[in-house]
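DATA SHEET
Item: assembly model
Revision: 1
Owner: S.N.
Input lines:
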Amino acid sequence: MESLQGLIDGFGIALGANNLLFAFLGALLGTAIGVLPGLGPAGTISLLLPVVYQMGSSTTTVIFLAGIYYGSMYGGSTTSILLNLPGEAASVITTLDGYQMAQKGRAGAALSIAAIGSFIAGTIGVIGLTFIAPPLAEFALDFGPPEYFSLTLVGLVLAVFLSGSSVSKGLLTLALGMILASVGLDPITGKLRFTFASVGLQSGFDFTTLAMGIFGLGEIFYNLEQTDAMGTVTAKIGRLFPTASDWVQSRWAILRGSVMGFVVGVLPGGGGVLGSLASYAVEQKLSKHPEEFGKGAIAGVAGPESANNAASTASFIPLLTLGIPSNSSIAMIFAALLIQGVTPGPFLIVEHPEVFWGVTASMYIGNVMLLILNLPLVGLWVQLLKVPFNILGPVVVLLTVIGVYSTSNDIFQVFVLIFFGVIGYLMRKFRFEPGPLPMAFVLAPMIENSVRQSLLMSRGSLNIFIDRPISATLLGVFAIMVLTQVFKAIRSRKR
Amino acid sequence: MKKHDRIAAVLLIVLGLAAAYYAYADLKLGTLRHPDSGFMPFLASLVVVATAATWLWSLRGPDPEPRPFWEKGAWVKPLLAVTFLIIYAATLEPLGYLPATFIFLGLWQFLVERVNWRRAALVTVLGTAGMYLLFVQLLGVYVPESIFGF
């Protein structure tokens, strides 16, 4: 009942003119960057972090940035279906059957089932958020420093394990993020760390600068090597709405994808990519005609597209209830909330109910907006693909430079930005997933403080982490994850 | 690619060891009862060393698919982009926003993207004017002024 009352209050906030406008702008921008290959939601949100300083309301800020995030999941399918070029990592799997459908003149049906599936999944995801988040936050109110340390540790490591890329590279990226976060003044002892007599480094690296460098500049430098990758739309869109037979073949795939995406999305690291891959595998297994997958099966579009939308909504649950960002885009929203003076975590629902319920209600509205934006306006989004990289690239570069300069009025920060841009470029060249770096950077102070506070509380005894049941359970999960990885490595060596 | 990966892994091990030594010797680890400033950076550095060593270990043996780090000439564009960006950052305050942005966009269009001169000139002029209108006139962002006062 409390959730329903909260949701009603949330609609009162989300339906305000300003919040409606920003929900729309977020959905619009999210769809645009989802369509454009090469610029993902994490990069776009990082580019907008300087704007966040100017936005007065934390609720409006999160409504806007959340719209970009889930909007990008809708837009990502367009290029996958029409160009065989995923606009988003979570839409990679959609290329298999979506592009085949487009080649057979059924692009319209593929686009519409992707949009309808996304709408249903997004709505199921928000319903889950409405009813699961409040009790979870209440449970987390009892957490002390040991529980927070264990939870953050499990969250970060799970994010690496589930990301699908190399575990050792992921852990290495996490550790580098932790070291980068320690640069500057130690908040407990006041000692300077890793500053090497540089005045500019005394206040540490700014998250905005780091994120814009790694995701904005790094992506542009990397794309300069492959500017010829952009294709041209040759497929005809055809009839836009699915036939009755399409609907019969897709409905269960949409529902299964929604539930699976939601469950996977709640886990750190289990964002849209994992959700869509899992959904595709399940649909192929359950299908009466598995041989049609990869040749234009509509369930191969409906399931994964639903899963990646449900997952993107579900990933707000650990952020808003536990203060744990489950992927790099959510880490940007975490930083935006901190900039606005709101600490994400179990107290958020109690201390800032307007943020939680306003954002949740805006997601219901945002999903309707996205359905309207994506179906009738598909032709407009296709036109967006004609923006050449020689315009898009320098515009993004100038946005990052001026964004960083305007927030600090310090040219040293622009050089720091370029440094992180080069790091972001090299990470992509060496096939490192950059996502864990901002996640570790943003969570490092919480990890360090909780470890030091726990050890102070226990007078130096490490038993505090295993004496408390919640912390012990989380560390047990951590041990199981690590052992599973070790056994996997040993097994693959024996083969 | 394995050769370059090995070099990167070794560099990361050296970096991790240097950071661990700095955390241990300069920042101090403290005790478990009173962890000092170097405690967490030291642990993080050890993780860097261990994971980079694991990466290096996984790169044993011959490279099944030897490929160059950059395909033919692919390094030129990113290198030019970084160089021009450094020049842009160095000239932004002394020259002011408008001239520095004009030079940066011109260099980018003519030398990084190498589009035909008409298109390059058009994007440079319109880009500079458009970004000025967006940042300075519309958003009211502070940018360094040129000697002409704008």
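QC remark: The two ends of chain B are 49 Å apart (CA to CA).
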